[in-house]
Amino acid sequence: MPETIMTWQSITPAIPEIYLVAAICLLLLVDAFAGQTRRGLTPTLTLVALAIGAALTAMYGNVPQRTVLFDGMYVADELAYVLKLFGFLFVAFGLLYSRDYLEERGILRGEYYVLALTALLGIFVLVSANSMLTVYIGVELLALSVYAMAAFDRDSGVAAESAMKYFVLGAIGSGALLYGMSMIYGMTGTLDLQELGGHLHEPPNLGVTIGLVFVVVAVAFKLGAVPFHMWLPDVYQGAPTSVTLFIGTAPKIAYFALTLRLLAHGLGGAVVTSDWATLDRESRALFKATQDPAWIMMTAPEYLRYSDAFMGALHQLILASAKKDLDTAADAQIELTRSCVQCHRYLTRRRLALK
Predict the structure, then answer these.
(1) Least CB-packed of 65, 82, 257, 349 within 10 Å?
(2) Which residues pair with 129 in a beta bridge?
(3) Exposed, middle or buried: residue 72 (CB in 10 Å: 0-12, 13-18, 19+)?
(4) pLDDT value at position 264?
């Protein structure tokens, strides 16, 4: 393979990530030397840094064609450009509305804003991932930052409990993702998502199918989608409200990109040519195996119907994304949201009835 000469001109599509790393380092230094005397300096500089980052992304991130950098690990395209701009917007609004909340409770510290920018960096890595290795790095960079944010209120035992549950269950989801990726890599011999799609156009074997099941379970868990949403109530209730606002907005961009990059672009061939009923049945078996008996008792026919609606909508979304059918994908996304809301209402009624 010929050696690739890296120049400043060749890495301009990655300027948003490079700038974000520099901004995080700068904020760390500012908070270390001036954070105690000027509490409002770090929040203000963070919003300024986000505005500058959005401007740099608009200047350099909008590439005329799909560009692959760093030996196939990084990709810049229209999807990454749009999602990065939305990432800057959501994080800026989240931090803007969080300032008064943090100040009133005496937890306005610079570490909060550094963690938010680190999570945003993980979102960007995930959005521009073109390799399963980059996908996992982005997932962990985002997840570890959010774990720390959930436990940011150190005087709250509820926040500490929710962060610990989030960490343990998140580690299970990350382990399932890594295990599925390792099986797929072992069967195909490549980590590149673009090459992976070419390897999976023929009917996949049992190893690829099992790996795909673990990947789908991990993606659904990270999204908090039914029936892998058991961590959402504890984390959303226990974490500070500003952190709940952050977790419910910006990371969803990353996991939406993860769904498209990994399931539609990378594993689209396997999803289109394989039997979805097999994936559905095996993912249900994996879900039930990880639950306690009290939860299994709640799997009434009505709950299973909502779960079926979710799995069908997820299947439709993956197929539409693979075929680039935006209208069908939008309808499937609406159906996903509707099934999640219906299942949440049912579980709420069921919980009240049990009391």
Answers:
(1) 65
(2) 74
(3) middle
(4) 65
Q: Which two tokens stand for residue 333?
A: 């996304």
- Helix/strand/coil for 109: coil
pLDDT of residue 299: 41
Name the pTM for this structure.
Answer: 0.72
**pLDDT of 125-161, one tens digit each?**
989 888 888 988 999 999 999 999 988 888 888 888 8
Closest C-alpha to 318, from 332, 306, 305: 332
Residue indicated by tokens 């509707």 = 338
DSSP code per residue over 278-326: HHHHHHHHHHHHTS-HHHHTT--HHHHHHHHHHHHHHHHHHHHHHTT-H
Looking only at Cα atoms, what is the longest distance across the chain? 67
Helix H or strand E encompassing 76 = strand 74-76
Q: Where are the domains of the chain?
A: 12-290, 291-355
| pLDDT < 50 regions, the chain | 1-3, 269-280, 282-283, 285-304, 306, 354
Structural contact between residues 325 and 264, judged by C-beta atoms closer than 8 angstroms: no
The three-class DSSP label of residue 248 is coil
